[in-house]
Amino acid sequence: DAKTTQPPSMDCAEGRAANLPCNHSTISGNEYVYWYRQIHSQGPQYIIHGLKNNETNEMASLIITEDRKSSTLILPHATLRDTAVYYCIVRAYNNAGNMLTFGGGTRLMVKP
Amino acid sequence: DTGVSQDPRHKITKRGQNVTFRCDPISEHNRLYWYRQTLGQGPEFLTYFQNEAQLEKSRLLSDRFSAERPKGSFSTLEIQRTEQGDSAMYLCASSFLTGVLDEQFFGPGTRLTVL
User: In CA terms, which of A61, A74, A78, B99 is 20 to 30 Å from A106?
Assistant: First the structure.
């Protein structure tokens, strides 16, 4: 699976949009971009995934550049409960196994 | 609560002792994963099962580690002759493979401290 690069930490004001970038310049055509987050003392939680089109769900939006070499996770109105480590993961789909390869992630601190 | 559960949540043991952790996945999920997470790092894959078959093991899973999933339901992870380097959070996740997503649902983890 392709490697990802994320900033180690970011701050965001409560109520504002949090934009978390991820670089995955070696992504292959069959690899998807997944985002998970891990709130302190909990297991990771799935947020969203995409291949090449922008995606939106009730938690977040995922913007993938046209060349697919980078993406941005957007939390439109960050709350204090969004403080967590956010992991960008690139993974190919195959039947042999779909383990997740986590990097260091971005520690997002939402401040009042 | 119908999520993934893990037991115990915390385990303190002395070096050289054996420990066993249990994971109960979401009932209809056919895939079960074990990960290990050390402080400040992201989780690292250890092994996964599809139903009762253990299909892949990481090189991190030394011969002191063994995992089982009898009858394709709950799973156990045993560590024999624990070492201080085994101190970590052990996370279990389960999923039901449907198409691309294979969303993994994680449990709260078992925090192991080896003294």
Answer: B99
